[in-house]
């Protein structure tokens, strides 16, 4: 019996499908001819990879003018789009 090798993307798709289904891991694996141990291994591996990406330094540097250069009536607006559809808006109106 030949062993089928799946790509990382294929495993991610399988892990996502199982999470969306109402099946237990055992039931899902039986239906998709997967071993439970391999499924758990890949689910952990993919989870660890996504956590590692989230912990990376993803800051964006930008320069702001010194406070002495701003006029008393200056306005500004900042919009920050966050995961999960959250939008943070800050502004200063003159």
- Helix-strand pattern, N to C? HHHEE
Tell me about the biggest sheet?
2 strands, antiparallel
Spatially, the strands of the biggest sheet line up as 1-2
Overall geometry comes to elongated
| Tally of helical runs | 3
Helix content: 40-55%
State mean pLDDT (0 to 100 scale). Answer: 84
Q: What does the radius of gyration come to?
A: 23 Å
Strand content: 5-15%
Multimerization status: single chain
| Low-confidence regions | none
Number of strands: 2
Give the CA-CA distance, first to last residue.
73 Å
| Main structural class | alpha+beta
List keywords for this structure.
94 residues, two-stranded antiparallel sheet, 15% strand, 3 helices, alpha+beta, elongated
List the helices and strands and how they pair.
Elements: H1 8-20, H2 25-31, H3 36-55, E1 76-82, E2 86-92
Antiparallel strand pairs: 1-2
Helix pairs in contact: 1-3
How would you characterize the overall build of this protein?
The protein is α+β, with helices and mostly antiparallel strands and 94 residues long. The chain has a domain at 8-55. Helices cover 43% and strands 15% of the residues. It has three helices and two strands. It has helices spanning 8-20, 25-31, 36-55, and strands at 76-82, 86-92. The chain is elongated and about 70 Å long.
